[in-house]
Amino acid sequence: MSADPHSAAQAAVPPDDVQPDDIQPDDIRSGGCLCGAVRYEAKAPLRAVVACHCLQCRKTSGHFAAMTSVPLERFVLTRDDGLAWFRSSEKAERGFCRLCGSNLFWKPAGEGRISITAGTLDGPTGLCIERHIYCDYAGDYYAIAEAVPQLPEH
Questions:
Q1: What percent of the chain has pLDDT over 70?
Q2: Before 149, cis peptide (omega within 30)?
Q3: What is the reported pLDDT for 8?
């Protein structure tokens, strides 16, 4: 019998018994990549999710990027064996797992914050999409149907 190809990813995720209403403003939120080679913790509160439809976010995510954010002083890498950074522009760099390919972070140059791909957080997040940005660059194969602001630029 062969090993379950999903077992490594499942081992990196805690049980889903945490409900969004149980999340407190000063809770430590954890997350990581699919294979577990990159893990992080972020102290709440986390910013509401911003969905970015710019070309770079579309290329790195395969769709659009849904990101939350925290100040760097409330963020810590607990495992970075697989972490690699790519300078995608003069304005920012992107962190991803070089082993499994997970898109994890967006860090603007000269700012004291890091954006975290919302889908990499463990368990329920209690977060919601607050707005969509760079909507003029959205792919032609989907419609943005959410009842939140949709901005043509940042």
A1: 82
A2: no
A3: 38
CA distance 59 to 37: 22
Q: Report the run of H or E that residue 60 belongs to, with start and end.
A: helix 55-61
Distance, in Å, from the CA atom of 64 to the CA atom of 81, rounded to the nearest integer, reads: 26
Which residue type, as a one-letter code, is found at position 87? R
pLDDT tens digits, residue range 115-143?
A: 999 999 998 999 999 999 999 999 999 99
- Taking the C-alpha atoms of residue 132 and residue 101, their distance in angstroms, rounded to an integer, is 24
Closest to 36 measured CA to CA, from 69, 68, 77, 67 = 77
For the chain, how many residues are written? 154
pTM above 0.90, yes or no: no
Which stretches of 44-108 are assigned E, i.e. beta strand?
49-52, 65-71, 75-80, 83-87, 92-97, 103-108
- What is the distance in angstroms between the CA of the first residue and the CA of the last residue of the chain? 51
pLDDT confidence band for 21 (50 / 70 / 90): very low
